[in-house]
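Ticket #4471: structure export looks truncated?
Reporter: QA, pipeline team
Priority: medium

Steps to reproduce: submit the single chain below to the structure queue and open the exported record.
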Amino acid sequence: MIETLAVDLAWGWILAIKTAVVLSIIPFGALLLGYVFLLKMMSHMQSRLGPMDPGGFHGWFQLIGDGIKFLQKEDITPEGADRRVFALAPAIILVSTFLVYIVIPVGPRLIVRDLDVGIFFALAVSSLSVIGVLMAGWASANKYALIGALRAAGQLIAYELPLVLATVGVVIQAGTMSLQGIVYAQQNGEIFGWGGIGNPFILTQIVGFLLFLTAAQAELTQTPFDMPVAESEIVGGYYVEYTGFRFLFFFMGEFGTAFAFAGIAATLFLGGWSVPWVDGTAADVLGPIVMLTKVMLVSFLIFWVRFTYPRFREDQLQSIAWKYLIPLSLVNILVTGILKVAI
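Actual output as written to the record:
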């Protein structure tokens, strides 16, 4: 039945459709997280009345107004800047975000590319953003931007290690690096011989889940890991000289990456798009809704931490990565390996 209803499209059209879908997810994710958490949740948590007023009902026009404001601002390039590198930096960051979405599944057939090394690919391309950060800081011809870029480079490199190591326990347990395969391993798994809800890896990999969220928070340079953009010290960090639409690229890159990391965490630890006892076309229909629900839940944890804790000092920030997160992730891998062999 599915084959008779299928539309035979040329590979070029299929590629174009997939590219358009992924490109639309980035601004959608950025706008959704920005509206729900940055404006609304923070407004309630901090009793801020401003974002709750524009446009009337629940301040619905606030984010739209901010977007119009950015588009109207003059596009300024500093006189001493390297113009080509300065213009290219935000695009590099956005491209790295775009590539992450290629391997995140939202249904049995709703995935751009199911790679055998999916999680490795996602984390590898996400690390490309550090190149754009360094380009932005160096090309701006601004000492504050350069200091912010160097801080960001040191932070991103340090926290990529626990981010990768936190996923190894899941890979060992699932027996595959394919994100689609990891979803199926959880959907078809059993808990003490009972497969009613499958086997969500958060039950056995809770340590890995917490490590992943902590490292992702640092990779996003969000509070309490926001040393690279500390307004009280370096004005705004590596994007301090960017205005208008180019600054909007950094905003979309940050929040689009947060949406992607939440999607990866939901896939690795919460079963992704899977629903118990639902397969085939029904899973393709329900999958995006289930996945979005889980992504918003993980995003809530990320932004809750952002609005709750004060900024770490640079020495504290590095100590957390090298003295605590990395050793804990290695212990988690060791225990997972022993249990995998024993059980």
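Status: closed, not a bug. The export was complete when the record was re-opened. Leaving a note from the reviewer for reference: Residues 54 and 62 are 5 Å apart (CA to CA).
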